[in-house]
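Quick one: co-fold with XIL.
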Amino acid sequence: MGENSLPADGGRRRLVGTRRLLVAGALGVLGTVTALSASVPAGAAAGTLGAAAAQSGRYYGAAIAAGHMSDSAYVATWDREFNAVTPENEMKWDATEPSRGSFRFTSADQIVSHAQSKGMKIRGHTLVWHNQLPSWVSGLSTSDLRSAMVNHINTVMGHYKGKIYAWDVVNEAFADGGAVGTLRSSVWTQKLGNGFIEEAFRAARAADPSAKLCYNDYNIDNATASKTLGVYNMIKDFKARGVPIDCVGLQSHLSSGSVPSNYQQNIAQFAALGVDVQITELDVGGSGSAQADAYRRVTQACTAVPRCTGITVWGVTDKYSWRSGDTPLLFDGNYTKKQAYTAVLDALNAATPNTSPSPNTSPSPNTSPSPNTSPSPTRSPVTGACSAAIETTNSWPGGFQSTVTVRAGSAAVNGWTVKWTWPGGQSISSLWNGTQSVSGSSVTVRNTDYNGSIAAGSSTTFGFTANGTAATPSVTCTSP
Ligand code: XIL
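Sure, here it is.
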């Protein structure tokens, strides 16, 4: 297990050391709020978290575990207080595709159908992550891993197509240390390179154009932290190059003393890039008024920024929390409202109506992707010092997506040019990690200034979406 990978318990380890402010003692319990109906007359305070958030056009959600749905108090609290849900584990890769190509949706479906029957928003969590990933995935070759990733995205998103408000497409890809922009080393970076994030987002847009696509991470709560800036730069770059992304998820696993003073500024600076911000896994270790103050500040920071569209707490009750020792949630083990609950409710009720609703996503026109069944890479002969292979990574009626791998031979390559001829009128609609020139059916793609150098035996990739019938023409690679 690498330095940054989390243990099977999902990573309590990283919380150690930041949770020292937990003060032993009775939890503040202020259970005096009267329940009101979900529709609230203008000017009146709402009596539940969901209804209070809805007044300013936001949602208030909870992570829910299917395994606890037999606890009637759990479901009653969920139904009464929350108008959104994130399945806590049920949509993760190990739950949905435990062995290659064999998908299971029973537990996730249970949460989704309940949520739908109550008209709740559903956040999908998560498609591409280094944790809770079955071991078969780590054993794949590069091209198998790429098609497994795209197939997983297509199948899981396809199963829930039209039902999901926002998907955490990629989770926790950035490293906790290192220079700004450093990704954590994982099977994804090791085999697909840093471009895996972009590939996942492009595949996700095609798989369900109606879902907002989020990048989700922890420790990106401080506006000036280098991890935050790495994510900020990535989103800025995606926006500049037209890579589909609609939102950033701040997990916000916090403790009473650790809400950064620039937390609101952080939300605002992400929003200024043209993405929604969602607080996706909020829990705050602590108790009493210190915990309530932290929750209040987080809530106010979100409601102060129009594009902060909602908050999800990572569980309903302290007794089932993944950090139960930190008592980090809004309801204690008896489902009694804590002081933090009242702080959140009051802050939501004090929010001014959200006047700038976020624009809808701009989906690509391709609405019916079909999983790529068997990509057959076409390899070029080695001319010069590089070779190239093209494969179809996604296709839909009238269009497709391809990845081209450019590989150096026994010597390093400095600059490369890949060429091919379309067999049947295809045309590139969007290309990344390369610069193209097109003449009739002939396509020439050269390296960008950041991916021209390839070490001996290594590779880089570029990709594109195209109109027409999926094709894998022969490609040649030359290096000056
Ligand atoms: C946690 C769950 O809460 C636990 O039940 C599970 O054992 C491990 O995962 N970041 C995430 C969440 O994105 O999926 C994690 O959830 C918590 C950290």
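If it helps, DSSP finds twelve helices and 20 strands in the chain.
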